[in-house]
Every structure is written in C-alpha cells, then in structure tokens.
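Hi W.,

Here's what went into the run:
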Amino acid sequence: NAGVMQNPRHLVRRRGQEARLRCSPMKGHSHVYWYRQLPEEGLKFMVYLQKENIIDESGMPKERFSAEFPKEGPSILRIQQVVRGDSAAYFCASSATGRTEAFFGQGTRLTVV
Amino acid sequence: EDQVTQSPEALRLQEGESSSLNCSYTVSGLRGLFWYRQDPGKGPEFLFTLYSAGEEKEKERLKATLTKKESFLHITAPKPEDSATYLCAVDMRFGAGTRLTVKP
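Here's what came out:
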C-alpha cells in the first residue's frame, strides 16, 4: 500500500514562473491537506480539500496560490509568478476521513532563483 | 482562533534520561490531538491520536497523555535514534515543535 506520493521532490523555478506541485493521496483517502515549511520553522497550514471541494483555505495566501483536488488524478498546488519568498518545502498529507490522523508525503522542495 | 503551543523549543538529553514534552491548546470542541515525529529533510511521521481527557497511548519509549488543556509526550530512557522534532497538531494546525537531541 503506497504512501502519500509527492512530485517532484525538488523543483527549481525562476522568478515569475509557475510552480505546480502534485500530491497523490494514500489509497482510499479522499481528504488532502497542504502545508508549507520554511527552514527551521514549523508546518504552516495552507488548505484542506476533499474530492472536488475546497473545505478550508484559510491558510492560503490571497494571491498567486491555488489548489485543487479533482475527481480523478492527484491534488495540485499551483503557485503563479513565483518569488524568492516562495522557496520552502511543501508537504501534503491525506486522511481517510476529515480531520483525523493524516499521513504525510516526503515533500517538494521549491527553490526560486 | 485555535492555538497550539509547544514547549520547550529545544531539549537536549543524555541517553537514558527521561523527560516530557508539552503541547497546550485552545480549541472549541477538540476533535483529536495528534503527535508526529519529523526527521530532517523528511515528512512528519504519525505517532498518536488522543481524543478525550485521561486517554493515554504508548509506543516503545513514547507515551502520550491528554488533559482538557494540554498533552504530554513522555520519553522514557531515550536513545540517540529518538532525536527528532516532535510536533503536535489540533484541527490540522501544528505547533512549532520541540527539537529533541539525545546524546549517547
């Protein structure tokens, strides 16, 4: 039973480009959570999605960031017009039901140059 | 707004020296408190879920307990491989973590 899969593991983007981060939840999980972690800092909640629905996006920056979890395929975190401050590790987690124990992927490390 | 506060920020122990990590929370209607372990460069690893005051969970050298306002992660006779950052979460919001270092 594969765990949560995130890809790519490392992503380098130039300022102004778009970054697309993918997250495939564990089999049977329909709830996905995205977090951002800066070096030496904690996990900051960004968004909580269920299939085809955004449940809680209170942690998402108002501009340039969006997330989706379509009926088929992985969840996508999209960052438009990236800036250096977007450089961080982005983690996703999935759970079988809402707000219960969630299991994390290994993260995508985004570097904006 | 829900808040999760962990203390201490960092803890250095000698191998075999037991101690406790604290997680205090303010939330209306607790729907579970979660403990995770995170190693450098990796995603958090799930440890425990606690739902009600008085509940306890154990795994190897770790024991988690819950009261109405806080949770403790007790580490008994730690080993160097227990060195990691320990995170707690309420309603999918995480505290800043406690960075534990266990010296041989």
